[in-house]
């Protein structure tokens, strides 16, 4: 089973964003891509076979989701996250971001305040701005290599009239897996100030053994009327191109609002193969997922050990996701120069930390979801480039 995780598949020429846009994004084709949040691993064999079988059927008309699929999702959330939900609380959409768009459109008005916790996934910023809502930030506190929530600031912002809060749980890019206590504190404040929580839990299944993901909806049923929780198998099983996600929305009116908005904007139908992949992954993908954990843990350790003796770059220990946040502020470079160092000197393509918000200045994001030898090559390029800078001084 480990073999698929040890070989780097050739993704060039497949219209891969990560691989086929390297020159356009980084200005050269001679850059090792380590940025986009998908994996350089083949999908689980049972998922692949399910897709092949569906293709052999040969007809790809409009496809529905049904109660059987709802039960599979319900069982997954119970088995993997100990969350018991009602099957009819599930709705489907082509992607988590689509659902968030619909939530902002239907549950807030132009000018309303929508809060995010920075540094955070760039589309959270743009969704709020594109719909002419007022972006409010609750910057995370960074101290001794760990991020925590500033609850005093969060309460002040909620009190100021925030209508909705897009929560990233687990958090991308800093890798925090919020504890039950941290989430309970968020719930308490949201209830007090009547704030809708839109919880993006797309990384929920990608947790290291030193943490445990807790769905925010599993903590307190009294928050259900103010909660939309978004999931997808796409990050977990490397299926992003198949465009399938779901949300758990207990409140009937809220669920109807989102469902109607999806229909109104023409995004209520799922990709036929996405439905097939969702069903197969949640029924037959867990052995593959267990092996993935082993590789990600190994890669996390490799990066942390490689930079252990360096003062210039400090990896932030991720508790979840296959992404790692790198603190590069000791290099004393502005963000443009830092980005150029990675591209021109290290020859690696990472995510520019500033795209995650002002709090990402001096940081970069690296993707760990590749064979260990590939990760090792990338970080060694960074070390070699750092050594070259030291030798120039």
Folded structure, characterized:
The protein has two domains: 142 residues, Aspartate Aminotransferase, domain 1 (Alpha-Beta Complex), CATH 3.90.1150; 237 residues, 3-Layer(aba) Sandwich (Aspartate Aminotransferase, domain 2), CATH 3.40.640.10. Helix 7 links the parallel strand 3 and strand 4. Helices cover 43% and strands 15% of the residues. The chain is an alpha/beta fold and 393 residues long. The model has no long low-confidence stretch (mean pLDDT 97). The strands form four sheets. It has a seven-stranded mixed β-sheet, with helices on both faces. The chain has a four-stranded antiparallel β-sheet with strand order 11-12-15-14, covered by helices on one side. A two-stranded parallel sheet has the order 1-13. Helix 5 packs across helix 12, helix 8 runs parallel beside helix 9 and helix 13 runs parallel beside helix 15. It contains 15 helices and 15 strands.
């Amino acid at each position: 089973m480990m073999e698929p995780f040890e070989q780097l598949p050739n993704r060039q020429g497949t219209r891969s964003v990560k691989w086929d846009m390297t020159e356009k994004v980084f200005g050269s084709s001679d850059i090792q891509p380590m940025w986009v949040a998908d994996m350089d691993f083949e999908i689980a064999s049972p998922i692949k076979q399910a897709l092949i079988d569906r293709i052999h059927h040969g007809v790809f008309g409009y496809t529905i989701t049904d109660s059987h699929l709802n039960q599979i999702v319900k069982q997954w959330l119970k088995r993997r996250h100990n969350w018991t939900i009602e099957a009819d609380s599930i709705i489907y959409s082509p992607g988590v971001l689509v659902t968030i768009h619909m939530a902002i459109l239907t549950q807030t008005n132009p000018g309303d305040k929508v809060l995010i916790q920075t540094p955070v996934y760039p589309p959270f910023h743009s969704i709020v701005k594109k719909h002419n809502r007022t972006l409010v930030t609750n910057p995370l506190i960074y101290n001794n290599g760990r991020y925590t929530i500033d609850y005093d600031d969060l309460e002040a912002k909620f009190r100021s009239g925030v209508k909705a809060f897009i929560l990233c749980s687990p958090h991308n890019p800093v890798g925090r897996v919020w504890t039950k206590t941290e989430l309970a504190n968020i719930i308490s404040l949201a209830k007090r100030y009547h704030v809708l929580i839109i919880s993006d839990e797309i990384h929920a299944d990608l947790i290291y053994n030193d943490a445990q993901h807790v769905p925010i909806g599993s903590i307190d049923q009294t928050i259900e009327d103010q909660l939309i929780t978004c999931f997808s198998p796409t990050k977990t099983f490397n299926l992003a191109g198949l465009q399938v996600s779901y949300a758990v929305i207990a409140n009937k009116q809220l669920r109807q609002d989102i469902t109607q908005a999806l229909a109104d904007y023409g995004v209520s139908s799922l990709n036929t193969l996405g439905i097939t992949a969702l069903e197969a992954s949640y029924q037959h993908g867990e052995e593959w997922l267990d092996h993935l954990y082993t590789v990600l843990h190994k890669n996390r350790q490799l990066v942390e050990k490689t930079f252990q003796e360096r003062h210039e770059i400090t990896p932030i220990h991720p508790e979840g996701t296959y992404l790692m946040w790198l603190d590069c502020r000791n290099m004393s470079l502005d963000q443009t120069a830092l980005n150029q160092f990675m591209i021109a000197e290290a020859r690696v393509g990472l995510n520019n930390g500033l795209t995650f918000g002002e709090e990402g200045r001096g940081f970069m994001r690296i993707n760990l979801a590749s064979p260990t030898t590939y990760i090792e090559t990338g970080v060694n390029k960074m070390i070699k480039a750092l050594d070259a800078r030291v030798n120039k001084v």
